[in-house]
């Protein structure tokens, strides 16, 4: 470039007139090629500035260029460690007239910013061409690429046009979703690119810069091997990328509405903390024809961006890649639950203590014989409505509006001894996704947090009356278990806001208060999540209800009855284990039992009576395929406890400790008293 500039300034003289004339023509030609922004003054172009350092920002660069800050967008080209890095950072000035673009180029091209020489040009891919010494640039009137997307030469634009019209043809007749044989490799950085791209996605080199032939066969990657999604049962999906972050489900649905019938609304992937769209999502069409029409819009403009539309795929293992839809509930570890609880006796009576929206109940009913029966419990009025409908569909099913901790009081008078009881602890997905219930700090709604909105007090009322010491204990024991300082600071912020009459009564405002008090969160979650969890546990007496439910289940189950408990966090697992330790039966290889039998065999037989107790199977976790199909199942753990009449370890310890003089073993604590009032 320096050599070209020097030659332009001091052209060689020739003695012959013809030679001089040729030089003049050559000089004019060189000037023409060196000024890519010389286009129609009425046209609008984008100016690219290259060679910036990593410290460059819009504020300093806009001041240097004498432009408004909002007119300058700064970005860095990253390669994630793959291949050579492009020449420095890039910035863009969009919607500039050709006249102003020429002025910027003449004034600032070759100037120094932060000690680095910058290059200013029209954004048509010429930066990468100059770097790789490739073909001439395209005129500025050619279609400009999307922001940070590079550019293309006029030749390439003719060969592989960017889809800017809604009905632009796609893939030139190839099967949607396949890796094409005419995918091309960038000559500047060696990166592979899809055939429809007119410039390299990594370094912005135009397609004309190709020096090596593209792949002749489909790329053998896991993504390429993944089967395309689509069937009459589940619909035909397209996967969208590069959507504006401000896009809504309604806007995306309306954009594709004329392609064909759509199942529900578009589903956008959203950030759990901010609720903002991540720029990607799915649209499901009723038939294949609708999807084919949508695929034609790949590369078209939507909200100022070029949206990518491709066939949605299943995972490499054939599982459909889906996200949990709001308001729905996918039962976790259903197959393991059926195998552990129902399979031994398909004609028995069973209890689903946490009906929710009936996911596990329907699975159990499907596994039962015509003689089998299922009783379900729930506190949520919305769940009871769903249960009433299921009662009409299946005569083997009965729903009870009561906590599962009261199953003994409900079922004993009916003479029911269930073969198995199932408890899915915690909160169901529909409750979690309903903003009016106040369970998610990311959503905005009333600060309620009750499972049964008809009983008890909402969180907003509880926070106005609870003492500071009790609130700190609740947040520490049920939420911030590993960070007592955070529990104390959150409590202080709540009490100060309460005293000032500024205590928030909505989830979003309360979550913001907690987040300010806690500060940085080291885990990938909202800083207020654990505080919401603590308030939910205490308001719904979740841990007390667990103890009541486990005790009640073993009280009404016959010998060899099975209790299945699905836990979601460590604190729930700890309560299950503590309860199990109180009623665990002796094992033949238990060392203390072997000592007592050998030393005090006859005395053991007289003193130690057989009582109901329990044996626990090995805990189970979701399979890899289930976590891919239902990501919310990843934290689940299934515990199966079996009722047996035998000597309890705790009774053996009392007998042995008395002989050894080792102290006393406390009796198991009775289940907590019921405070919720239900007509049972």
Characterization of this structure:
The protein is built from 24 helices and 21 strands. The strands form six sheets. A seven-stranded mixed β-sheet has the order 17-16-15-18-19-21-20, with helices on both faces. It has a four-stranded antiparallel β-sheet with strand order 2-3-1-6. The protein has a four-stranded antiparallel β-sheet with strand order 10-11-9-14. The protein is elongated.
Rg result? 35 Å
Q: How many β strands by DSSP?
A: 21
Q: Segments where pLDDT lies below 50 for 5+ residues?
A: 11-21, 23-39, 76-87, 125-181, 211-225, 315-327
The helical percent reads: 25-40%
| Structural class by secondary-structure content | alpha+beta
Anisotropy-based shape: elongated
Fraction in beta strands: 15-25%
**Biggest pleated sheet:** 7 strands, mixed
The largest sheet has its strands arranged as 17-16-15-18-19-21-20
Overall pLDDT confidence: 77
Number of helices: 24
What distance lies between the first and last C-alpha atoms, to the nearest angstrom?
A: 88 Å
Quick recap:
It is built from 24 helices and 21 strands. The protein has 680 residues and is α+β, with helices and mostly antiparallel strands.
List the main descriptive attributes of the protein structure presented here.
single chain, 680 residues, alpha+beta, 35% helix
Question: What is the topology?
Answer:
Blueprint: H1 2-9, H2 17-33, E1 44-52, H3 58-65, E2 72-75, E3 89-97, H4 98-108, E4 112-113, E5 116-117, E6 119-122, H5 126-132, H6 154-159, E7 184-185, E8 192-193, H7 222-225, E9 236-241, H8 249-256, E10 267-270, E11 277-285, H9 288-295, E12 301-302, E13 305-306, E14 308-311, H10 334-342, E15 349-352, H11 359-367, E16 373-378, H12 381-393, E17 397-401, H13 407-411, E18 420-424, H14 429-433, H15 459-465, H16 468-478, H17 484-499, H18 507-518, H19 529-539, H20 542-556, E19 562-567, H21 570-583, H22 591-607, E20 611-616, H23 624-629, E21 637-646, H24 649-660
Parallel strand pairs: 15-16, 15-18, 16-17, 18-19
Antiparallel strand pairs: 1-3, 1-6, 2-3, 4-5, 7-8, 9-11, 9-14, 10-11, 12-13, 19-21, 20-21
